[in-house]
Amino acid sequence: MRKMKESGVEWLGEIPNYWNVIKVQDGFTQKKSKACQSDPVVLTLARSGVKVRDMSSAEGQFAASYFNYNPVSKDDLLINPMDLISGDNCSISEVEGVISPAYINLRYKKGFNPKFYHYYFKYQYWSMAFFSYGKGVSYENRWTLNAETLMSFPLLQPGEEEQKNIAEFLDMKCNKINSLMVDIQSEIEILDKYKKSVIIEAVTKGLDRKVPMKDSGMPWIGKVPSHWLVEKVKYHLTRKEPKNQGDKQVLSVYREYGVIPKDSRDDNHNVTSEDTSKYKYVRPGNLVINKMKAWQGSMGVSDYEGIVSPAYFIYHFTDDLLIPKYIHYLFRSCYKDEFRRISGGIREGQWDLSPNEFNNIMLLIPPEEEQKKIIRIIEEKTSEIEEIIAKKMEQLEILADYKKSIIYEYVTGKKEEDE
Fold it and tell me: Is 51 helix (H, G, I), strand (E, B) or coil?
């Protein structure tokens, strides 16, 4: 077993006795030149690494000129200094092109293997080391690591051959882990599609496959049980939007979850107004619709009392023919394309749902007892599927943590490739 010494850097701990602790500027230069190209290959950092941006899409067109962009060569290390937590925003480039000057572009010097340091820098993200060196008003307000600070950041220096061996070993190990994670993610996607198909089948075809069927008059739904009613929304729901009635919790509408308390999740970055007096009051059983994102599925029947943004629509059920939970599943499962058709505006991302068009959408209305059975079967089956998905998500987390631990152990020299 090789001898170890204290690195003098808290988050690195002990390192092999013959490794050096230097600074990033000793092993890398920051590339600051300008692209000066009228039609460059534009790159971006994605979860899966450095990617060529699709300039034919609306998302690709985000700069008036690329002359100030930074040229990227193969094996350059690209770092997003405004994201100091996600290792996804640090990667080695395997393609040439240009990238926004907002990123830090590092070129390795002789004796420094870029693939080894690709893993080394990822570990700095995961250990929060970069975050502790960053500055800003708050994390939400672009906590940033400036280039000068990065160039003075601690860098470990094994021998060149050892860097190469560690990088190759980590490539092999991480590729195996990544392959397992891709397989599990594929299984999750299949399960999720199956869950959606269970819901769609139940709310549009019912539970008895032997009953006579009829044309629903809606091409995206096709045939439905002949004893079901097909009637317009306006005969069963009406907009009723009382203002905030006091100190009520703020609710949000998610595509994935429906209507939930805003503070129940930490991934909602919409800012709640300091003055909520104009917010709309929601009762349990109300249908809440984000009018700008209805076509993405942002709607649902609320199980909660609370308030929502003035930009949302709130509908009350006007009779007992419909069980709200059934409509919750019906709208969220197979009406997205129809909501897209009846929404409009200048920008697709903010298309508004037309209330008049919505009122005239046709609803499927099974008998009350059948609705109850449909709801029960949906919840039983989806609960089983979600339990399996949750276990697979745990497997993904375990593999991700395992990958991080392997990278940490080898880029800090606590383990050797033959261990």
Answer: strand
Half-sphere exposure of 5 (CA within 13 A, CB side): 9
Provide mean pLDDT across the span 390-412: 96
d(CA 404, CA 14) in angstroms, rounded, equals 17
pLDDT in tens, 43-59: 888 877 888 887 666 55
Using a pLDDT cut of 70, give the percent of the chain over it: 92
- For residue 243, what pLDDT is reported? 87
**Cα–Cα distance between 125 and 127 in angstroms, integer?**
6
What superfamily would CATH give domain 4-158?
Answer: DNA methylase specificity domains (3.90.220.20)
Do 46 and 88 form a contact (C-beta atoms < 8 A)? yes
Residue 121's SS3 state is helix
Read off the tokens for 215.
Answer: 């044309």
**CA dist list (Å): 51 to 41, 116, 205, 395:** 10, 20, 43, 27
Tell me how far apart the alpha carbons of residues 139 and 146 are, in angstroms, rounded to a whole number: 15
Domain 229-365 has CATH 3.90.220.20: yes
- What distance separates the 2 farthest-apart alpha carbons in the chain? 81
Domain with CATH 3.90.220.20 in the chain: 4-158, 229-365
**Tokens 């394309």 belong to residue:** 337
- The model's pTM: 0.82
First to last CA, the chain: 10
